[in-house]
Amino acid sequence: MAENSDNNAYWSANRRIIGISLVIWFISSFGFGILLRPLLSGIKVGGTDIGFWFAQQGSILVFLVLIFVYATKMNRLDKEHGVDE
Length: 85
Description:
Elements: H1 2-35, E1 44-45, E2 48-49, H2 50-81
Antiparallel strand pairs: 1-2
Helix pairs in contact: 1-2
């Protein structure tokens, strides 16, 4: 029974990390690049407004950072639960 609760704790933490990552990615790509673009039109980055920058480049950079953060957090979680390589 203890192994089952440990598995549930592992997968719960795993789903939480994935959910937070997806929310951050959604906000940076769809939120800043599309929904909030008119509100962000006054802020300039690299000669264009920040909404356009997020739509074209910023969301990709956020996604790359999320990949490294996810890998780091999952390695730490795997070590905590004894399932690391």
